[in-house]
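Handoff note, outgoing to incoming analyst
You'll be picking up this chain. Sequence as last confirmed:
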Amino acid sequence: MQLPIKVFAKLAILAMALVMGSNVQASPEVTISQAIAMHGEPKYKEGFTHFEYVNPDAPKGGTVRRDAVGTFDTLNNFTPKGNSAQGLGLIYDTLLTRSLDEPFTLYGLIAEKIELPKDRSWIKFHLNPNAKFHDGKAISANDVVFTFNTLIKKGPPHYQAYYEDVESVTAIDSKTVKFVFKPTNNAELPLIVGELPVLPEHYWKNKDFSKSTLTAPLGSGPYKIEQIEPGRSISYQRVDNYWAKNHPINKGTYNYDTVIYDYYRDRSIALEAFKAHELDYREENNSKLWATAYDIPQVKSGDIVKELIPHQRPVGMQGFAMNTRREIFKDPKVREALALAFDFEWTNKNLFYGQYKRTKSYFDNTELASTGLPSEEELEILLPYKDQLPEEVFTKEYQPPYTDGNGKIRNQLRLAWRKLKAAGWTIKGGKLLNKNNEQMTFEIMLYAPAFERVVNPFRKNLERLGIDVSIRMVDVTQYINRLRSFDYDMIIATFGQSSSPGNEQRNYWGSKYADQPSSRNFIGIKNPVIDEIIEKLIAADSRESLVNLTRALDRVLLWNHYVIPQHHISAWRVAYWDTFERPKISPKLDIGFFTWWIKPGSQTISVKLQSE
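Most recent structure output, in case you need it:
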């Protein structure tokens, strides 16, 4: 007798439960799978052999040398202390891992299978029995529990922001761990905990996790630390017996035998090292250097490849960020007025060689960016807060100040002065004064000398308004320390975004994190409307709802004038010596550097680390 399809499906689920252990309960409301998507279904189905943006037969071998700026003094990148070395993510595996061509989909790595109810109120991870640390010890559920609890107690604040809706985490048995979530409809949380790197409890058991260290920690990932010169260079060696080297998500990736990051005082010095072939690969973030510094024989001969690689990833927001903990930046009218002193069009034409677009959204280059007036769906979100929001949220499309690029911005400065006057400031003797006859004075803190040429014209325009502005150049270590303690007036901040925003928005804009040292709420935002929209965004039950909530959040952020938007480019500017090959298909959301490989037989530079 042939069984009905529904009966057969239930028997199949039960059979899988028996195979995976008694903890997996067969239920029509629970799915067991190898992947989880934030919305919709995973692109790659059960049994896939590799991602489409890799060459599964890419040859292994060779050494690549890349640059890093500043210095490092710790190999523990999970505490808020010290400057951690570049590339440390290479030594750790996570429960799940992202594909680079989907908005937010995770596939099993340490977790072989995922068990998830329809309401996403909990998640179980069934660990791969082959998963192990570099010392050969199997990765267990206890390691997962240890990692989570340690990061919550001793890690940077963003872990608390990500995981604050986790009710409990329990090791069911040695290979099964269960996360139970608070009833907040946080649909993203199962994916967020899936990105948890798993640390070895037996390694950290008798060590102080909160301290900086230059002892190479034990990991489980495709690379391990081979050698360091503190503050100067770090070398990673591919692990020959890496447990997941033939895993479908790793096929065609991590092809280099050795990856070295050499540290330089600034990017211009690193460029000269690249030209001398002391470095193999460079991502250029300076428009002037991209336009002028690569007119060299090696580029003309093809020995160096200079290439623009388009992408579809969110560019986020880069801008002059005002610390609203400072009294002078508390008034949005003042913040709006200061934005009129930044002449992007002149800057782009004269300093950036016309390479950039003006950023108009915190989620630019994606469907998440707000445009035009609010849609009906957005109005449904925003109208309950009408009395708490700027009127422009409902009546105007946000556009940053625009000039004709000739450098003459008298009209913009007149408008800025009127706004400042409305905010209670007056001009006396060429100085902008408050009601206590104190001049508006603030400092713009930088660590990259290349930004001085961008800041100086802005500073001069502000001085024409009677504002006393200074530029403070500090080293990377001091910059990070002052950033963590919010000890600055204005900085150039970058707020990176994903194609599926969620829990991280709390840490960027949430009131709870405004006064928490080391959080990423650099601006100091305390806005109850933003808090509520973030929570609704996190609980979005569909991609459509997520898009509308993100656009609404974008409008509120923009019209509060927390930053003066700068610019972006929708492509990677890369230069590399002609020793690389890369897949025919590039991932949409990442440069995919670790899917590239060294041409067999090509000449590579010495592996030996630089010494005195």
